[in-house]
Amino acid sequence: MNEEKEAVTLKDLGEFGLIDRITKKIKSYQKNTKLGPGDDAAVIKSQNNILVSSDMLVEGVHFDMSFTPLKHLGYKSVIVNISDIYAMNAIPTHITVNLGISSKYTLEAIDELYDGILLACKKYKVDIIGGDITSCLNGLTISITVIGEGNENEIVRRSGAKENDLLVTTGDLGGAYMGLNVLQREKEVWKNNQNMQPELDNFNYILERQLKPEARKDIIESFKDNNIKPTSMIDISDGLASEIFHICKSSNVGCQVYEDKIPIDSETYKTSMDFNINPTISALNGGEDYELLFTINQKDYEKIKNDPKITVIGHITKKDQGINLVGKGNTLTPLKAQGWNHFNS
Amino acid sequence: MNEEKEAVTLKDLGEFGLIDRITKKIKSYQKNTKLGPGDDAAVIKSQNNILVSSDMLVEGVHFDMSFTPLKHLGYKSVIVNISDIYAMNAIPTHITVNLGISSKYTLEAIDELYDGILLACKKYKVDIIGGDITSCLNGLTISITVIGEGNENEIVRRSGAKENDLLVTTGDLGGAYMGLNVLQREKEVWKNNQNMQPELDNFNYILERQLKPEARKDIIESFKDNNIKPTSMIDISDGLASEIFHICKSSNVGCQVYEDKIPIDSETYKTSMDFNINPTISALNGGEDYELLFTINQKDYEKIKNDPKITVIGHITKKDQGINLVGKGNTLTPLKAQGWNHFNS
C-alpha cells in the first residue's frame, strides 16, 4: 500500500487532481459558508462587518525547511493570518489558501503541509473556502487570506489609543525569536558535523513558540465575557517595539513602556542570556510571538488585573513625550522600531 | 530629480516604507469599505452574499518577464481574479494584493506593476483593502484575493446546467494563446540574434488578448438589463475544453459543441494556421481568454440571439451521451480536457 501511495507524483495528479484531493479533506465549521471550494468563487452569507487580512510566507525568508516540520508550517501559516483578525477584536471564519510549490516537494509533503492547515482550521473553527495551487520555480510560497466577522461596535483598530490608557500585552514575549536562534545554532552545528544530533531537549517551550504558535482567541473571548473593549489593538508579529510604534503612529500618541514589566518566560530569559542577547531586546525586537498588544481605559484595569494571561507594561502619553522605554533607575531611552525588514537580507 | 528618484532602493524603503508608498496611491470606489489598508485587517460592511476567490501568478510559470510589461502584468493579475467573480454573476468589490519580490526588482519596477494594478481597480471600481509585501529569493509572485457581492437569487454556480440548455460563450477564443505563441517565437529569434527587432506589428489584437485582457463586466450588466440568469457559468482561464468539462462534471450532464460555431477572430485564425496549429485546438485548449462560458435555458435564446458579444456553440445533453465536438459532416469526437498542468513542466 505504502509503495503504491509513494508512486503518485504531483505531476501525475496535476493541478486539478491535487485540488480534488485536498478539497475532499476540507470540512465546514461555519453555518454561513454557502458554497466552499470548487467553483469560480466561494459564497458566504453575511449580515455583518466582514474583516479581511492577507499574509504571504516565503521559503528562505519566513521559514527554513531544514528545521521546520511541514505540518507545523501549515499550522503556523493559518495562525499568522487569523491572529490579525483577533487583533481587530473579531472572529476569523474563512480562509483561502494559495500555494506555490516547486518540484522538490512530493505529494506527501503537500499532504503534511495541508494536515497542519486543516488542524489549525479545526481548532479555530475556520472554513477553507478556496485557493489556488500552482508550481513555482523555487521553494514554497504560502499566501493565505483570512476573512472574519465582527460587530460594528466591537471592532478595535490601531488608532484609538488615548492619553493615560494602559498599554497591555498578553502572554510572554521573545520566546519565538529565541526558539529561532536555537534552531539556527543547531543547524550550523549539524552542517559542520552531520553525526551530531541537535540539542533541543531543553528548549521545548521556545521551540513551540517558534514552530507552532497559537492565536489568542481566548483573549478575545475573555474581552467579551468581561465586557472589555480595548481602545486600540495589534498582534505582535514583527516585535513589541514595532507594534508599539504602529499603535502610537496610528493613534497620534506617545508611550512609556516599563522594561521590568515586559513579560519574559524563564526559558526565553535563560536562552537569551546564553546567546549574549539582552532578554529585553529579544522581547522588543524578536517578533513572531502572535500575542496581542492593546490599550485600555484605566477604568477597565480592575477587570484585567487578576488575569495571569495579561500584563500591563506601560501607558499612553501625549505624542510630544515620545515613545520611551523606562529602564532601571527610571532612565528613559527612546524606543526604536526595529521589526523585520525582509529587503535587508 | 530623476537621479535622486533612482537612488531610492527597496532596501532603503523597507517593507513598511514600501507599503506606505503604495497605500498613498490607493483610492476607494466602494461605499462599504469602512477600513482600508493599514490596520491588522480591512473592514467591509455587508448585508449581502460575499464571494471570495484567489489566484497566484508566479514568474516563469504564469508570466515571462522578458516580454511582459510590468504595468500590463499588474493589470492582468487583477483581471484574472475579478473574472472569477463575474463568472458567478456577481460584482467584484475588493481585493487584497500579496507580492513576493526578489532583489532583481527595483522600486520603479514595483511602481509600474502597481500602476497596472491601480488602473484595473479604477476601471472596474474595485478597492484595494490590504495585502502583504515581502522579499523572496527568486522572481516575482503575485497572489490576489478578490471579494465580491451578489444577491442570493442572482449567483450562478457551475453546477446548474440542464439537458437541452444552450452552451454559450462570449467574445472569441484562442487569441491569448496565439499572442503567447508570437511572443515566445520572437523571444527565440531575439535570443539567436539580438540585433533583430521583434516583429509584432501585425499581431495587435492577439498580443493585447495575452498581455492585457479584460474581464466581462459588460456581460454581467447585460444579463441584468435583459433579465437573464444563466443556469451555469465559468470563466475561460484554462481553455474552452477544460471549462466545458468543469461545467459538465459539476452539473452531471453531457454536452455537444459545434466546431464551426466556436468564435475565432481572423487574426487568431491566421496566426494559428501560420504556426501549424489547428485554430479549433487553439480555441479549445489555449486558455487565458477570460471570456465567460455559460448555459441558458432555451427560452432565453430570443434575448441573446442578436447580441454580437455572445455565441451559442452547443447544447447540454444527458450525461451518458458524453462530451463531444461535432465536426464537419456531423462527425462526433469526444472532447479532451487539456487545460494547463503546471506540474508538467
Q: What's the CATH architecture of the largest domain in chain A?
A: Alpha-Beta Complex
* Name of the CATH homologous superfamily of the largest domain in chain A: PurM-like C-terminal domain
Record field, number of beta strands of chain A: 13
Structural class of chain A: alpha+beta
The strands making up the biggest β-sheet of chain A line up spatially as 8-10-7-11-9-12-13
State the end-to-end distance of chain A: 45 Å
Kindly describe this structure.
- 2 copies of one chain form a homodimer.
- The N and C termini of chain A lie far apart (45 Å).
- Chain A has 2 domains: 2-150, 60s Ribosomal Protein L30, Chain: A, CATH 3.30.1330; 158-339, Phosphoribosyl-aminoimidazole Synthetase, Chain A, domain 2, CATH 3.90.650.
- In chain A, strand 1 and strand 2 (42-45) form a beta hairpin.
- The first copy, chain A, contains 11 helices and 13 strands.
- The first copy, chain A, is 35% helix and 24% strand.
- Residues 1-5 of chain A have low confidence and may be disordered.
- A 7-stranded mixed sheet of chain A has the order 8-10-7-11-9-12-13, sandwiched between helices. In chain A, strands 3-6-4-5 form a 4-stranded mixed sheet.
- Chain A has 345 residues and is of the alpha+beta class.
- Chains A and B meet through helix 2, strand 2, strand 3, strand 4 and strand 5 of A and helix 2, strand 2, strand 3, strand 4 and strand 5 of B.
